[in-house]
Amino acid sequence: MKTSLKKTLLILPIAGLLGIASPGFAHDDAAEHRPEPWHAERRVVHDEHRALHQGLNNEHAATHEDLEAIHRKAHRRPMTAWQHRRLHRQLRRAHRAEHRTLNAEHRAAHEELDAEHQNYHYFPR
Questions:
Q1: Is the Cβ–Cβ distance between 60 and 98 less than 8 Å?
Q2: Model confidence pLDDT, tens digit, residues 15-68
Q3: Residue 101: which of 65, 62, 59, 72 has the closest Cα?
Q4: From CA 18, how far away is CA 72, in angstroms rounded?
Q5: Helical H runs in 31-80?
Q6: The Cα angle at residue 73 between residues 71 and 99, in degrees rounded to 5
Q7: 36 inside domain
Q8: What angle, rounded to 10 degrees, do the helices at 81-122 and 37-75 form?
Q9: Domain enclosing residue 100, as ranges
Q10: Which of 2, 51, 60, 95 has the fewest other C-beta atoms within 10 Å?
Q11: Does residue 106 belong to any structural domain of this protein?
């Protein structure tokens, strides 16, 4: 026999076993699919994290709306070019300050969640 034919005859049974074996292992025992106890705790932390971000996003949107309202109100009255530039500088300054505040809150909340996470691992329940 030629070498390629010998290789084919050796490979086919192995490939057949692999093809037959995989459906047999496709579904494990149902007990292995039960959620771990820590999954519920992880979900709670995830939901808290999502709520934190949603709260910060809402606060950010409210700040933008407030600054836009101030901007619209200021433009209703006449002002000089100097006053107009001053208004926009003040609005930009207020906007940056709010971003700094929100970013600090965000970092602090992440640090708190991280500390809780580390504490969980160091002191298992």
A1: yes
A2: 555 555 555 555 555 555 556 666 777 788 888 889 989 999 999 999 999 999
A3: 59
A4: 71
A5: 37-75
A6: 30
A7: no
A8: 170
A9: 82-116
A10: 2
A11: yes
